[in-house]
Amino acid sequence: MASSGSGSDFAALLRAWRDRLSPADAGFTVTDRRRAPGLRREELAQLAGLSVDYLLRLEQGRARNPSPQIVGALARALQLSRAERDQLYRSAGLLPPRDGTVSAHVPPGIQRLAARLGDLPIGVFTADWTLVWWNTMWSALFGDPAVVPAPERNLARALFGNGPARGSMLSVRSERGPDAFAASIVADLKDAVSRYPEDTQLDRLVRELRGTSDAFARHWTTETSAAQHTTDRKTIRHPEIGDILLDCDVLIVPGADLRMVTYTAATGSDGAGKLELLRVTGGRGATTPPPLSVADRCDRAR
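RE: above sequence
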């Protein structure tokens, strides 16, 4: 049952919190030509995965009854505290997320940290491996997650499902092998179920995959403990650049039950060069550059 809320209150909060958020904290370049200190409407729309027109209607109070998914995306994009997030939900006539369920709230400090590492692909996942935050380099490497329906932005569905998540995922090969990587994701889900037994969406995800994927069901039966994530080397097959060999690290966010996934490469390596190409081109129309000669490397080092 939804709580009472006012569309005008929701619109006013959106405008006020958009004006409050520094573009630099959200990962945007600040120039002297910017007239207002806060985010532009198109920037917030980009961060939340919404159209600018729909965001305009929300801020003007003309669009009513936003879904919980939209309110959650706006709360993350605006870098709200938990109390502010709950206030935004109530102003939209919705009940805030319950305690004891998988949280999709990304603390503002984590978003600011990730935004300052904008040269690296970074994605933030919840305890059930749903992608809830990513930067432009993540989109350049893996494709824009915003084009995939929100429920499908889940790594377990990408690995074991038959929906858009699987079709949208680029070919990723782990040096540990596909079976070990899949097993670690299932082990994480088993651990999440033990900690969030009342979460209906998590229960639905597990039931769905156990019923449709023999591989998931096999791992679910055999995996007995949560995986310890360590550095892994992965090859990502990019449609424009080709194979990119990168180090993948999973960083656990204490107190938030989130996983920050980062991809890096050693300075001067082929992977580093391809990441730089992705940063410059956004992954669109890029071609693999020829290897740098010794003279070129010396020039770049100066």
